[in-house]
């Protein structure tokens, strides 16, 4: 059954969806937590992410519309719009767009409306699914084909001359084809944020969304490719064969530790840069936010104690970025506690052991975090407690980035932290990768960089942080909004400059930044 429109006689298939990017909220919008079976659960404010359009038909007489509005309000819904569909025969049909707190809440609102006398629920549409109908991107020509001459130049016979030119000089493909401005967004669907291993078909809406953001924020043409294999060797082979079409590869939502090997091998083998956004994009934006947070509290990254919870690909990439930025003491925890030398560690954790925790601190997260200045979570919901935060150093900084539910409820943490950041769009200080990858690839493509090295990543982080002047940094404004159009331009310029200075650019005459 379609999840988009529900007839009144059917069940209400209101699907679960992840929160998308949005404007930064404020602490006044934080939800009220409540207890269930001993765990803390968040009940969020109604949000457009869970909005439904409910078509109602009822007698066109005084008082009915007021009863409908009152019923929606009593159910906790937030009306965003009311539109007349049809009036006639003494009846009126209207579409009510209502924001709910979550999936179940949307169902409750519709069920309550069904209890009203003389009111018929004609159908219910999920606005999120409507946005995805038919896909979210398309391919459009950049040159007109209106005449016989146009056709002969764009296709046969004129195209043959261009093909021969590229055959003689393969580098010409970067200027004579879409490669100069095109990125492949590639996934195997094995680790989709908040959803896990859902496979390539179910991962496609996420990859389409990524492609939209590339175009919207930096003018980069991106195409989603979901591979029907989760075999590491086959993924590498597939990307290798696709590479001649693109100017860069953005790997997305591939499970760890496979994603690390896939990225490293492809980056070494291909002539175009390969970037795993879940690792490095996250690390870049985390560093940007942390730099500004530390400025706000007057601490130095070289002197603070940083605890990272999550020893997977994202956690490891964050460690690498922090080390590049001159971090002092960094301790990484996994489910067992602080990562320390032990038998049977995989390659990733062996690297973590060699590059963190110089004092070989041991213990569970709750023990290790005592006295820490910074907590960065890329792990799971509700692993951090208020008591843990209270044991931290003065003016604690907490980045609880697990999505959709953070390591600690931000409302619970707020009275005990100086600066709080999450990965969610409905809280302040959202650590969102869209601040990084569009501008980063714009800069990479601009100078035809062969790889994305540490200098470029560090430059990207500094550029994001630098968008906010130091005097404008606030506790709830340490990172720019995802809609701040200055960000992509700043990141693009910084990355292209770093590529030139580090010797990986194949073009040194930078083109002006523009949206195509």
TrEMBL record:
Any one Gene Ontology molecular-function term assigned to this protein's record: NAD binding
Pfam family, one: malic
UniProt cofactor(s): Mn(2+); Mg(2+)
EC number in record: 1.1.1.38
Lineage: Bacteria, Pseudomonadati, Planctomycetota, Planctomycetia, Planctomycetales
Domain ACT residue range list: 53-127
Listed SUPFAM superfamilies: ACT-like, Aminoacid dehydrogenase-like, N-terminal domain, NAD(P)-binding Rossmann-fold domains
Matches recorded under InterPro entries: ACT-like_dom_sf (IPR045865), ACT_dom (IPR002912), Aminoacid_DH-like_N_sf (IPR046346), Malate_Decarboxylase (IPR051674), Malic_N_dom (IPR012301), Malic_N_dom_sf (IPR037062), Malic_NAD-bd (IPR012302), Malic_NAD-bd_bact_type (IPR045213)
SMART domains linked: malic, Malic_M
Keywords: Metal-binding, Oxidoreductase
Organism: Crateriforma conspicua
Record flagged with keyword Cytoplasm: no
Pathway, per record: Amino-acid biosynthesis
Protein name: NAD-dependent malic enzyme
Entry's family note: Belongs to the malic enzymes family.
């Amino acid at each position: 059954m379609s999840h988009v429109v529900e007839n009144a006689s059917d069940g209400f298939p209101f699907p679960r969806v992840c929160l998308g990017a949005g404007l930064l909220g404020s602490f006044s919008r934080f939800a009220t937590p409540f207890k269930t079976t001993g765990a803390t659960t968040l009940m969020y404010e109604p949000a457009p992410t869970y909005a439904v359009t409910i078509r109602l038909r009822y007698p066109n007489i005084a008082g009915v519309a007021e009863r409908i509005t009152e019923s929606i309000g009593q159910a906790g819904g937030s009306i965003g719009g009311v539109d007349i569909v049809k009036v006639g025969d003494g009846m009126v049909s209207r579409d009510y767009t209502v924001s709910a707190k979550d999936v179940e809440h949307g169902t409750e609102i519709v069920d309550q409306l069904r209890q009203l006398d003389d009111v018929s629920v004609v159908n219910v549409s999920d606005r999120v699914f409507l946005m995805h109908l038919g896909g979210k991107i398309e391919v459009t020509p950049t040159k007109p084909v209106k005449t016989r001459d146009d056709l002969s130049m764009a296709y046969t016979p004129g195209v043959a001359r261009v093909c021969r030119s590229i055959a003689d000089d393969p580098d010409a493909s970067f200027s004579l084809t879409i490669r100069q401005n095109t990125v492949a967004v590639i996934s195997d669907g094995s680790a989709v944020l908040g959803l896990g291993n859902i496979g390539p078909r179910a991962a496609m809406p996420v990859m389409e969304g990524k492609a939209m953001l590339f175009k919207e924020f930096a003018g980069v043409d991106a195409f989603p490719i979901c591979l029907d294999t989760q075999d590491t060797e086959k993924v590498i082979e597939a990307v290798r064969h696709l590479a001649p079409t693109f100017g860069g590869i953005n790997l997305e939502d591939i499970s760890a530790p496979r994603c690390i090997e896939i990225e490293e091998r492809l980056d070494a083998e291909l002539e175009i840069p390969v970037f795993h956004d879940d690792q490095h994009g996250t690390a870049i934006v985390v560093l940007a936010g942390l730099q500004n947070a530390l400025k706000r509290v007057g601490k130095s990254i070289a002197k603070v104690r940083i605890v990272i919870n999550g020893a997977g690909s994202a956690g490891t990439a964050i460690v690498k970025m922090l080390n590049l930025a001159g971090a002092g003491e960094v301790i990484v925890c996994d489910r067992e506690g602080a990562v320390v030398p032990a038998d049977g560690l995989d390659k990733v954790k062996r690297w973590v052991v060699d590059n963190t925790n110089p004092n070989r601190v041991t213990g569970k997260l709750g023990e290790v975090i005592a006295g820490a200045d910074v907590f960065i979570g890329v792990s799971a919901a509700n692993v951090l407690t208020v008591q843990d935060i209270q044991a931290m150093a003065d003016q604690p900084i907490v980045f609880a980035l697990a999505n959709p539910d953070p390591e600690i409820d931000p409302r619970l943490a707020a009275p005990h932290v100086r600066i709080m950041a999450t990965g969610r769009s409905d809280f302040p200080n959202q650590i969102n990768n869209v601040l990084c990858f569009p501008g980063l690839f714009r800069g990479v493509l601009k100078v035809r960089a062969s790889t994305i090295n540490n200098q470029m990543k560090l430059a990207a982080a500094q550029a994001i942080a630098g968008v906010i002047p130091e005097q404008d940094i606030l506790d709830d404004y340490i990172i720019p909004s995802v809609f701040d159009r200055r960000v992509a331009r700043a990141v693009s310029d910084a990355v292209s400059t770093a590529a030139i200075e580090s010797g990986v650019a194949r073009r040194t005459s930078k083109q002006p930044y523009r949206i195509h």
